[in-house]
Design brief:
The protein has about 220 residues and is α+β, with helices and mostly antiparallel strands. The protein is built from 9 helices and 9 strands.
């Protein structure tokens, strides 16, 4: 679903970022006491949420990226986006912004929600991400297993094309979600056409800064 800043500006206080969705919060699991879970869900319903408050229905990436994922020779094709996963600041009108829901992490079928813009990616970087997606297709929970070496291999592949992924970005790494630290250097390495996005990288609230993410089709 395309998002127009004019549609959501009235929700903001000035230029303050707005939460994309309620936070589940720490200290509680879906397997805990049902009464505790219900209380948390009721609490979450009172939290501000861009998706709910602006009545935004995210588009599945399976639908949004069906064509680019199917192009070319056999193997995975990735789509690289600059994405907000937590707080969403005012969105530049120079870009088309999408509300997306991406199924990821293989058979775990996690749902990752984001507001993102699609980037035109340099050929060498696109090839690297496509290779990463191929290597990690149906990898299960390898990125969560410190003995698998999957994280180290991922970081090495990024390093080969001059990119990096620090701890905060690495928290999102799983099958079909391949994050990169969104720095000016990384943005210039990934795309030739990112100058209008540079200002977004320096928001004073770290949760309102975007992430570079290569998305591929999930194995499940």
């Amino acid at each position: 679903m395309i998002i127009d800043e004019r549609r959501i500006a009235s929700l903001r206080t000035g230029d303050e970022p707005y939460p994309l969705q309620p936070r589940w919060g720490p200290g509680l699991r879906y397997t805990d006491d049902p009464s505790l879970i219900m209380a948390r869900l009721q609490e979450m319903a009172q939290q501000p949420s861009l998706l709910a408050d602006a009545k935004i229905t995210p588009t599945s990436t399976t639908k949004a990226f069906k064509a680019p994922w199917a192009e070319g020779p056999p193997g995975h094709r990735t789509v690289v986006v600059l994405a907000f996963l937590d707080l969403v600041p005012p969105l530049p009108a120079t870009r088309t912004w999408l509300a997306l829901r991406h199924q990821c992490a293989g058979v775990a079928c996690r749902q990752l929600y984001m507001v993102a813009t699609v980037l035109e990616v340099r050929e060498e970087v696109a090839a690297a991400f496509n290779g990463i997606a191929d290597e990690n297709d149906d990898c299960g929970r390898a990125f969560e297993d410190p003995e698998s070496g999957a994280v180290e291999r991922y970081l090495a592949r990024l390093g080969e094309v001059g990119l990096a992924c620090g701890p905060a970005s690495l928290a999102h790494l799983c099958e079909s979600v391949y994050p990169v630290d969104a720095t000016p250097k990384a943005l210039a390495r990934v795309t030739e056409d990112g100058d209008d996005l540079l200002g977004l990288l320096f928001h004073p609230d770290p949760l309102a800064r975007p992430l570079l993410v290569a998305l591929s089709e999930n194995s499940d």
